[in-house]
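name: query_chain
kind: protein
chains: 1
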Amino acid sequence: MTVIAVRVKKKTIEIAGDSQTTWGDHKMPKKNSSDKQVQSFGKIFQTNGLTLGCAGSVAHIGLLQIFSKTHAPKEMERDSILDWFIEFKEWVLDKAKINFSDILMHGIIIRDGKAFAFYDFMEVSRIYEFDAVGSGMFLAIGALELGATTEQAVNVAIKYDLYCGGSANKITIKI
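structure:
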């Protein structure tokens, strides 16, 4: 479980997430990625011009990281992002032999000064002000509505959501 919060401003987009990683009932130790193509900050990663923050299965997020190294949406528009998800679905079936309907993941994708939220690869919506995903999303959205930074919003979710933990990691992307 997780929380990823994003705020779109005139000159920047801020994204923050908690750092706790679990696999079932097991807390996984924090480690930095040695992969030079993927810069990872907890549940937020950057590769191939994309910044993604994901909530969902650690294994499935890893597949998205691998896929994103060589694939990106053609445009940062809803239909292009959905096409990218279809391409990911085909890639997952071919490479990992996993039924795509078994992959459940919510997230935020940022590129070209635009941010979008996605829900289980079926719905994509543009973020104009702020949003959050994950088990702590409603706590974070409430904090963002009251003017909290993304980092503060994540810290609220860490404090009050049973499934969020660790510390807040934040990235600021210039537009």
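note: The domain at 3-24+37-174 is CATH 3.60.20.10 (Glutamine Phosphoribosylpyrophosphate, subunit 1, domain 1).
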